[in-house]
Amino acid sequence: MNRLGTTNPVADYGPIIAAATSALVAAAVAWITARRSVRAQLDLLKLGVQQKLLEQLVAARLASYPELYSMISDLVKGMHDRKVTAAYLKALQERIDAWDSEHAILLGPHTTNVCYAFRQALALTARLVDQTGVKSAEAGSAVGDLWDKAARLELALRSDLGIYGVELAQAPGALHTPQVERY
Fold it and tell me: How far apart are the first and last CA of the chain?
C-alpha cells in the first residue's frame, strides 16, 4: 500500500514482469543459439560427406586417368616428331573411345566437354590425314587443332585430380577444382 492507502498493481507485479521478461529473453537466446549450433553441425556433416565422396572420386580417377593421359602424351610427342599417320590416329581413336566408354563416368562436367571435343578433333584429323595426307593444308590445320585440344584435355584431367588445388565453391559446403585452360 502506498501513502494514499491504495495498491499499485505495477509496483506489485514489477518483479514478476521483470522475471518473466528475463525468462523470455533467455529462452529466445537459447533457442537461437541452439538453432545456429545445429545448422553448424549439419554444415560440418555435409562437408564431411562431400569430402569423403571427393576422396573416393579422386582415388577412382587416379586409377583410370593415367591411361588416357599417357595416350594423349604419346600423341603430342608423336605429333611433335611428325610421326603421326592415319593408321596411328585411327588406332588411337579406337583406344581412346574404348577408354571413354569405360571411364567417362568419372570425368567432371568441364572435362567431359573437353574430352568430347578432343575425340571429335581426333576423328576428323584421322579422316583428313587418311584422305588428303598429313602434309595437306586441311590436315595440317586439323593437326594443329588436335594439338590444342589434346593440351586442353591434359589440363582438364589434371584439374579433375585436384593437381591445381581444391577450393570451396560459391555454394555453401561445396568443393570444386579449378579449371585451367592453358599451360
Answer: 89
As to burial, measured by CB atoms within 10 angstroms (0-12 exposed, 13-18 middle, 19+ buried), residue 179 is: middle
Instruction: Give the integer Cα–Cα distance in Å for 160 and 1.
Output: 81
Model pTM?
0.70
Model confidence pLDDT, tens digit, residues 63-115 = 999 999 999 999 988 888 777 888 999 999 999 999 999 999 999 999 999 99
Residues making up the chain, counted from first to last: 183
Query: Cell 608423336, residue?
Result: 78
The answer to whether residues 126 and 91 touch, using CB atoms and an 8 Å cutoff, is no
Q: Is 70 helix (H, G, I), strand (E, B) or coil?
A: helix
Phi/psi of residue 182, each to 5°?
-140, 150
| Cα gap 56→48, rounded to integer Å | 12
CA distance 31 to 168: 29
Per DSSP, 178 falls in state P
